[in-house]
Amino acid sequence: MTSTTGSSSPQRPGGRAADALRPLEIETGVLKFAEGSALITVGDTRVLAAASIEHRVPPFLIDSGRGWVTGEYAMLPRATHTRSPREVSRGRQGGRTLEIQRLIGRSLRAAVDLGALGERTVTLDCDVLQADGGTRTAAITGAWVALVEALARALLAGDLDRWPLVRQVAAVSVGYVEGAALLDLEYCEDSIAEVDLNVVATADGELIEVQGTGERRSFRRSELDRLLDLAFAGVDELAAAQSRVLAPTLEEVEAVSRKKGRRWAPPRDESDLWGAPS
Q1: pLDDT band at 8 (very low <50, low <70, confident <90, very high)
Q2: Global pTM?
């Protein structure tokens, strides 16, 4: 095995640098009825995320006082170059779909204090409108935005006693293509990658999950570290974009949380205020 850490970068589509994300856009409030929603566009990949809050929990959490966050994932038939039959027509979900929606659920549960959520379930439905690589990472990044929108709506309506969000979460792909470490692989790169990682992390630089495969070769620890460095830099940019689009919502949440945090103080007796008469 030969280390390729020092290799020059291949020419990327659009002339993108090795450490550059694809053009990113996040739009909130795109669905009329969902408690929270976001449409994320990463290059030519587009994912619609909807957050729904229900006052119920899985059986194993009944009477626990704790909530649950889960994810579902699907691709539209023409999200890809050729039509893929809807999984419902096959009578079951595919292994890839199950794997991805479990990843979405695990990633978003890491963002929430389930005790503060109470006995509620938040479901993140992630539907891929167009796939050009990185659909699972885009789904997680967009779903976190939809989750925040839904939790904020519940808090502002008085349905939540306290703010349950504890971490900011985003995800990105990285890999080695033609010997070079690249950030945010699109399909034409992902399909020929020698090493491929999906990295879920927090805005504070903590890892939540790393999915990594030596697709065409094994790789060294130093190469893994290089990819993780790239991924963390990408997550920083994604988190900044999330924060920008959610700034007005989070300002409202902060104002309400400050009011909820104030403790009621009983009036003091006048003798304590002015002292004993002289």
Answers
A1: low
A2: 0.88
Domain count, the chain: 1
Q: What backbone torsions phi and psi does residue 136 show, to the nearest 5 degrees?
A: -70, -35
Q: Could you list the residue range(s) of the whole structural domain that residue 152 is in?
A: 21-82+94-261
Does residue 146 contact residue 71 with C-beta atoms inside 8 Å?
Answer: no
Closest CA to 64 of 120, 124, 123: 120
What is the per-residue pLDDT across 160-195, written as a single tens digit (0 to 9) for each?
999 999 999 999 999 999 999 999 999 999 999 999
Residues 187/189/190/195 CA torsion (nearest 10 deg): -170
Close Cβ partners of 9 (under 8 Å, ≥ 6 residues apart):
17, 18, 180, 182
* Residue 139 and residue 128 in contact, taking contact as beta carbons nearer than 8 Å: yes
Which tokens sit at 267? 């009036």
194 domain-assigned: yes
Number of neighbours of residue 232 by Cβ within 10 angstroms = 17
Spatial contact of 171 and 235, defined as CB atoms under 8 Å apart:
yes
